[in-house]
Design a protein that fits this description.
- The C terminus is likely disordered.
- It is globular and about 75 Å long.
- Helix 3 runs parallel beside helix 5 and helix 8 crosses helix 10.
- By secondary structure, the chain is of the alpha/beta class.
- The chain contains ten helices and eleven strands.
- The two termini are 24 Å apart.
């Protein structure tokens, strides 16, 4: 679970809209300058006067006046925003109109219906498509851990590095100064077939699970995984070993100015896919008697995305390494 909420990055569609607005403004400004010398001698009529009787300036009603201009058939100039993808549909030809009246110029963004809504919807959402194993009791967690250890031993004969996508969830607190809740859920994924979601709020951490977490023969990968490991040590006195922070790995592989990555931002950058993080699930009750299907999918997808991003990033050459194209022995298929 990501500890800090990050501010969204500047979206390219916003920059395109601003450029379009500036283009319309420049065009309308040149038109208004030619009209100014004649219009300044005319007394403003009640219809065009924007200064109310109390002497305070008010902005015009853009939507109403734009509609009136459109119905009157007045001329307008258009700037078209670059084509984008929204929920699998193309969002193109978004006009920004600069309508002209004797009182001045104004602008109105008129997106088609397919463009309205969340601009992030242009990326397809990713979901874990394999089997989700939910374990709640101590016996169930032990059985799930034995299954993971068996898979690790099988893969160790073929692959040099066995990676485990790792993440944790806990119940949030909304009272200032209140202590953070203990870790409630651990999720582990090591491929496309199966993901384990362990409800340790009820089961605790059995010795076999502790041995898996403290074993350095498998690498645990995730974003800000060092913080998760520190919390698990405080909560259950378990020292998780052999960690790989995907944010640090991404900075090494991608180069440039180091960034503080979130899992969602890294996924979009590497795969052009979107990781859904609905607040009703992310900030839900992870200490519930039984996790909902939405919570299980959320937890499994986070662990799967961590595993998948690691398997992709580790194949990249380091940004300062000129020998591109070298691969490690035993690459796992994605």
């Amino acid at each position: 679970m990501e500890a800090d909420q990050e501010f969204p990055e500047w979206d390219p569609i916003d920059e395109a809209e601003l450029e379009a607005i500036e283009a319309s403004y420049s065009l309308s400004k040149s038109e208004s300058q030619s009209e100014f010398s004649s219009s300044k001698r005319l007394k403003a009529s009640p219809e065009t006067d924007l200064t109310p009787r109390d002497g305070r300036r008010r902005l015009p009603n853009w939507a109403t006046r734009s509609l009136q201009s459109s119905e009157a058939g007045e001329s307008s100039s258009y700037a078209v925003v670059n084509r984008r993808q929204y929920s699998g549909r193309e969002c193109s030809d978004v006009p920004i109109t600069a309508s002209s009246r004797s009182s001045g110029h104004y602008w109105n963004l008129v997106p088609p219906p397919s463009c309205r809504g969340n601009p992030k919807a242009r990326f397809p959402a990713i979901k874990f498509g394999g089997r989700i194993v939910y374990s709640k009791t101590s016996a169930e967690v032990e059985k799930a851990t034995e299954e993971i250890l068996g898979i690790i031993e099988t893969k160790r004969e073929e692959f040099d590095r066995i990676s485990l996508g790792f993440d944790m969830e806990w119940k949030p607190v909304f009272t200032r100064g209140a202590a953070q809740r203990k870790t409630a859920v651990i999720q582990i994924c090591m491929g496309t077939d199966v993901c384990h979601v362990m409800h340790i709020h009820h089961s605790g951490i059995p010795p076999v699970l502790q041995s898996l977490l403290e074993d350095n023969r498998s690498i645990k990968v995730g974003v800000c995984i060092g913080g998760d490991a520190a919390k698990l040590l405080r909560d259950y006195n378990v020292s998780t070993k052999d960690l790989e922070d995907l944010g640090h790995l991404a900075n090494v592989k991608l180069g440039g100015i180091p960034r503080t990555w979130s899992l969602a931002a890294l996924l979009e950058t590497i795969t052009s896919m979107q990781l859904d993080k609905p607040n009703r699930v992310r900030l839900g009750n992870w200490e519930a008697d039984k996790l909902s299907s939405d919570q299980l999918m959320y937890a499994a997808t986070d662990a799967y995305v961590s595993w998948r991003l690691y398997e992709v990033l580790r194949r990249f050459p380091d940004a300062n390494n000129t020998k591109a194209g070298e691969t490690e022995k035993g690459d796992l298929p994605l």
